[in-house]
Amino acid sequence: MAAEIQEKRVIPKEVANAQQEIWKFILGFTPTAVVKCAIELRIPDILENHETPMTLADLASEIGCNQSSLYRIMRFLIHYKIFQEKLVSETSVVGYALTPLSRLLTRHGENSMADLVLLESTPVMLAPWQKLSAWVLDNKQLPFDAAHGTDLWGFTAGNPEHSKIFDAGMACDARVGVAAVIEVCPEVFEGLKTMVDVGGGDGTALRLIVEACPWIHGINFDLPHVVAAAPATRGVEHVGGSMFDYVPKADATYFMKVLHDWTDEDCIEILKKCREAIPQDTGKVIIVDNVIGQKEDHEYVGLMIDMVMIAHTTNGKERTLKEWSYLFHEAGFTRYTIKRLQTYHSVMEVYP
């Protein structure tokens, strides 16, 4: 009987790696969806309030859910280091506990990013991503406009519930960014008696700055419907208006991740309004934003946010230092300094 010869094909290593890596893109939405699930089930908050690791049975009882379903959710999130397994007290029973990542997902923690996860995973914010290729092909109708019939700012103005979710998400990033600025370079606020936060949303960033620098009188400047919902804060005055019309006068103007929402032409006009609002001899514009190419360890964050700018804004973009410098020069400013933070943000001080 003739021997049957089987020839084994060896898949090249780079092909095998690619076949494994591609699943990160096929199912790339999965971690976000499961983290959102954990936030909605209050798992980070429940574990934070429990002094010792919680067993599956206890956690399921607290949530009011099926143990089998919860086990699968927790197994996935442990793999992604969102949660961890630890022994319960001195027993051999294994329970669930927080990690540094899940501490950022408690709903009311000082550095919580939970509201930003919830914002970016809403159907409203996800829908524009389906329009990305159409925008690349014709470069006419922006993805958010194509999905919702208006731009992001018009949509939030007409939908108070989404506006609330949006403001809460932006407040997350503001808390982290302001804390980094105050810790690394608090001198940017020295000598200021008044400062206007342009596009300051609900006033979270300015509130934190004024708390740390009580000598500053803060002016939170945003669209009327935004400041109308902003909570009253000691040392902060809420003013409604458009930065394309004017900017309230102050010793300094402050932008935190606002200018990246707008085109170069829009940014130049906004910066010109700022130059008119500050003293020409002692005034300055403080910009806390991403600078592409400045920080290799955070480069991926900046590149992802640049894609978010395409999906969600009116021709906004992340900028290199050369592109930022162009805006400053065209708006009539003469010099600037830049400081890098531990987060993906940088602080730019721009002078007339």
Give a quick account of the main beta sheet: strands, pairing sense, barrel closure. 8 strands, mixed
Radius of gyration: 24 Å
Beta-strand segment tally: 10
Please give the alpha-carbon distance between the first and last residues: 92 Å
Shape: globular
Count of helical stretches: 17
List low-pLDDT spans: none
In percent terms, what proportion of residues is strand? 15-25%
Into which percent range does the helicity of residues fall?
40-55%
The ordered H/E elements are: HHHHHHEEHHHHHHEHEHEEHEHEHEE
Can you give the mean pLDDT?
Answer: 90
Structural class: alpha/beta
Keywords: Methyltransferase, S-adenosyl-L-methionine, Transferase
Protein name: O-methyltransferase
Domain O-methyltransferase dimerisation: 23-106
Active site: 260 (proton acceptor)
Walk me through the structure.
With 352 residues, the chain is an alpha/beta fold. The chain is globular, with a radius of gyration of 24 Å. The longest helix is centred in the middle third of the chain and has 25 residues, at 160-184. The mean pLDDT is 90. The chain starts with 12 loop residues before the first helix and ends with a strand. Helix 11 crosses helix 12 and helix 12 packs parallel to helix 13 (204-212). It has helices at 13-21, 23-26, 30-40, 43-49, 56-63, 67-79, 114-120, 123-126, 132-138, 143-148, 152-158, 160-184, 204-212, 224-227, 264-277, 299-312, 321-330; strands at 83-87, 94-98, 194-198, 217-222, 236-240, 252-256, 284-292, 319-320, 335-340, 345-351. InterPro entries: COMT-like, COMT_C, COMT_dimerisation, SAM-dependent_MTases_sf, WH-like_DNA-bd_sf, WH_DNA-bd_sf. It comes from Centaurea solstitialis. Keywords: Methyltransferase, S-adenosyl-L-methionine, Transferase. Belongs to the class I-like SAM-binding methyltransferase superfamily. Cation-independent O-methyltransferase family. COMT subfamily. Residues 129-333 form the O-methyltransferase C-terminal domain.
